[in-house]
Design goal:
Number of domains: 3
Keywords: Coiled coil, Membrane, Signal, Transmembrane, Transmembrane helix
Radius of gyration: 40 Å
Largest sheet: 6 strands, antiparallel, barrel
Low-confidence stretches: 1-23
Structural class: alpha+beta
CATH class of the largest domain: Mainly Alpha
Number of strands: 15
Pfam families: LcnD_C
CATH architecture of the largest domain: Orthogonal Bundle
Main location: membrane
Coiled coil: 90-162
Shape: elongated
Mean pLDDT: 85
Strand content: 25-35%
Helix content: 40-55%
Subcellular location: Membrane
Order of helices and strands: HEEEEEHHEEEEEEEEHEE
């Protein structure tokens, strides 16, 4: 009789423990997810290096590889040589303009002298016309050379823009991990050919994960953005662990319970999705189930 009472006591204790640790105390259920994104090639060519593998963790922006830039470099050197050749003629143009301007200054002084003499009737109308005609010729020569100079400067500017474009393509040939992130998947290897837009690898910041869970309409009044909640995860088959999380998003529209819910009775219920941000100390994985207690 005493043994029977002892067994009954143990069974009751186990049931109480199960109730305390079981699903009945949880207010919402879901799975952990992360915002992942693809890093794609920004230029076409052969991958000359790609120094990363799946699971690598980067704590800051890091150069991890590059696409062959040999042809871009040669094209850039060619454009630089063209620019140098064209620019060498600018000094000659400037010198010609300076000569014409000096001639113009002398002619204008002569014009002042001749105009004064003409007022005193010491020179003829022809001499006045001649000096005015010479001034007009020199002014046209200056404008012609200035137009030639503008054309040369335009060619140089065009080459500068082409060089800047190539520099941009060279910069885009670098393969970067742009921020702190973990490599989830890798799609390409060194020496493979790629086109601009070809996916290279997938990243996600796993320093914190979102537990996407679902609550019923009558629970909406109990939650708010910024609210701290307890997040429960499995430690082993019999024990749980708790973490602190913060509600960062609540859906404004209801939806049917996702099909991952086991029973049809539950799947036909209208629920609201929410996300709880949880700092990841290494225990959390994408897809891992979790529970929420408000």
């Amino acid at each position: 009789m005493r043994q029977i009472k002892l067994y009954i006591g143990l069974i009751i204790a186990m049931l109480v423990s199960a109730c305390n640790n079981g699903d009945q105390l949880s207010d919402a259920y879901g799975n952990f997810e992360a915002v992942d994104y693809m890093i794609s090639a920004e230029n076409s060519g052969k991958i000359m290096g790609l120094n990363l593998k799946e699971g690598d963790v980067f704590n800051e922006p890091t150069l991890v590889g590059y696409i062959d830039t040999a042809q871009l470099f040669l094209k850039k050197e060619q454009l630089k040589a063209q620019r140098k050749s064209i620019a060498s003629g600018i000094q000659n143009i400037i010198s010609r303009i300076d000569v014409y301007k000096e001639q113009l200054v002398l002619l204008q002084k002569d014009k002042q002298r001749i105009d004064k003499m003409y007022a005193d009737e010491a020179v003829s109308v022809k001499e006045v016309d001649d000096i005015n005609g010479n001034i007009q010729v020199v002014e046209k020569q200056i404008k012609s050379v200035q137009s030639e100079n503008a054309k040369v400067l335009g060619n140089i500017e065009s080459l500068d823009r082409q060089i800047e474009s190539i520099n941009d393509l060279i910069a885009k040939s670098k393969i970067m991990v742009p921020e702190a992130a973990t490599v989830l998947e890798k799609y390409k290897e060194p020496f493979e050919m790629v086109n601009a837009g070809t996916p290279l690898f997938k990243l996600a910041d796993l320093r914190s994960l979102d537990l996407r869970a679902y609550i019923s309409g009558d629970q909406l009044s109990s939650v708010r953005i910024g609210q701290k909640v307890k997040v429960i995860i499995d430690k082993n088959a019999d024990e749980n662990e708790s973490l602190e999380g913060e509600i960062t998003w609540i859906s404004s529209q209801s939806e049917f319970t996702p099909k991952i819910i086991q029973t049809k009775q539950e799947r036909v219920k209208l629920v609201y999705a929410l996300k709880v941000r949880v700092v990841n100390d290494g225990r959390l994985k994408i897809g891992m189930p979790g529970e929420i207690r408000f």
